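# step 3/5: fold
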Amino acid sequence: METFENMQKAISSLDPCKLKVLLVTSLGIGGLLCYLALRKKPKKIPVGDGWWRVGEKPLTEDRTIRPFVVETSEEMIQDLHQRIDQTRYTDSVEDGRFHYGFNSAYLKKVAKYWRQEFDWEKQVRVLNKYPHFKTNIEGLDVHFIHVKPVQRAGRKVLPLMMVHGWPGSFYEFYRILPLLTETEGDFVFEVICPSIPGYGYSEAPHKQGFTCLDAARIFHKLMDRLDFGDYYVQGGDWGAFITCSMALMKPECIRGLHLNMVNAKAGGTLTVISLLVGRYLPFLVGFTSEDVRRIYPFMQKNVYEILRESGYMHIQATKPDTAGCGLNDSPVGLAAYILEKFSTWTDYKNRDLEDGGLERKFSLDDLLTNIMIYWTTGSIIPSMRFYKENMGANFQKSMDNTTKIYVPTGLAAFPHELLHCPRVWARSRFTDIRSYTYMPRGGHFAAFEEPVLLAQDLLQFVKKVESKKPK
């Protein structure tokens, strides 16, 4: 990336007409094409600005960063218990397992554990293990945790922002944080995990139109407010879209972009050709044998499965407030809606199990803690609105989803991610891929499911990037 930029600067300083003649006469048309490629400047998404409260934006901005503590009360717990006790269940059909959604027999077990054994006060102490803060950006109180490593002489501290998705939260990163802030290497991370506005402890936008681009801009402002000039970013789900937008918006601030969900296609005709040929002659289209295993049979894995699993998305992208009313009123309904995603998105095969395989990768305490973040803040509806705001007309063709990204990029391809993106497709959008890893196991919630694997991949990616940094 730096070599490319240096060549661009050198060429830009020369007389264009003389340089064209020189390249054509010495290297032919190929030289001219090279010249044009090097002079082409990467597109940047305009930074812009926003204001998400009702009323006019004030002339001065409160840039104060305030400590925040997660709290609970006896009244809150009593209200929760009363609502759990009053839940009305419908029996599952015979041998329904998780094919109809959350199995009600297992849901009763989850509710019983939640009511009788789950200790929210204890989990609040767990949440407060790391320092929480809030600061007002564009009219919204933005929540984040900020975890600093133990300083050691001669070891580089690298700032890292990790961004969650739906239906997750900043709590997804609690298991991976020690693996990033307590490492024994040449560098260690100082980690910032914000809550997307409208999720958890971050205030919800009061106006329409809040998209990934707006979240990206707010998170850049947050890092600037914390006095970070450049930093790494990591994300999956909406976090992947937001961090990609951050890389497009201010690439000079992004030392590296690491994703565990990849949004890229080879492009119309090339995609069709690669899919038709790839299963039988994968080497002709750049597929590996692992790509073939993960992509095919194509219709089954990329069309039918997505249709089965995307009903929630159509609801949330059209009428989120309607469905959200019931979820915001019933804790057990909320748990069923969210935990079904933690079952299926971890592995589609979990639909064949009576318990959805939830406790294979997660503990009920961890799962219910994530649910409680949504429940106690009443944030399920604004979190669902994020789909409607983003998934308007031509979402997949929007500038922030199609523009090439030039920052150093690391991609972790987990085998049970909802869709697989081969490296050859990823290269069509990410021009500087430093690492692409076929992860041995894991699904959509990488940091929550496989924190060790994700941390290892992130560390090796950053090591590659830093080794090429100028001394």
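# step 4/5: annotate
The beta strands are 65-68, 132-137, 140-147, 156-163, 187-194, 231-235, 254-259, 409-413, 433-438.
# step 5/5: archive (pending)
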